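Action item from last week, closing it out:
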Amino acid sequence: MGFLVYFLLIALIPIWAQMRVKSTFKKYSRVATTSGMTGREMARKILDENGLFDVKVVEGRGFLSDHYNPVTKTVALSPDNYHGHSVAGAAVAAHEVGHAIQDAESYAFLRFRHALVPVANIGSNMSWIFLLIGMFTQMTGMFLLGIILMAAGVVFQLITLPVEFNASSRAMNQIVSLGLIRNEEERHAKKVLNAAAMTYVAAAAVAVIELLRLVLIFTGMQGED
C-alpha cells in the first residue's frame, strides 16, 4: 500500500503543477495589457532599460518554450508570448529577462546552477546504472555511488528554486516600476509567475522524495549485511 501511495505522489505532484500552470496561463493569456505591448516589445524595453543592449529577443518554438540562453545571450519567447499582448505573455517575457539580468549581475545561485549542469547531467544519466547494479548484486558500495550521483541532480533542482523565484521577483519589479502593467494586471501577472514556479517546486519535491526513498533502501541493505 505504501509503495502505491509513493508512486501516486511522484506521479501526481508534477501533473498537478503542469495542469495549474497551463490553466493559469490560458486564463490570463486572454487578458490584454493596457500598454498594448507584445512580449517581444516588453522584453526589449526591460533589457534596454537595464543596459542589456547585447541581449537578443527571438521567437522560439513550441508552447511555453520560453527560456534565456546565457551562452548566446538570447531571450527566446514562444510564438504566443512573442507576438501576443497578454498579461500572461508579459509576465513570462519579464521572467526570462529576469534571468538575463541575473546573468549580467553574476547572480550567485545562477552561476552555481550553471556550474552544476555537467555534474547534474552525468548524475541523472548514470545514477540508475549503479543503483540497479547495487540492488541486484547487493553491492552496497555501488548503490551508494548511485545515490551520490543522484544527489547531484537533486542539488541542481534545489538550486533552481532560488534562481526561478528571484527571476520572478525581478520580473515583477521591472514591469511595475516601468509602468508596463498597472493595477489589476499586477495581481494577474503574479498568479502566472507563481503557477510557473510551482512546476519547479514540484520537480524538486519529487527529486527529494525519491532520494530519501533510496537512502532508506541503502540503510536497509546495510542492516542485512
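Closing note: The longest strand covers residues 56-59.
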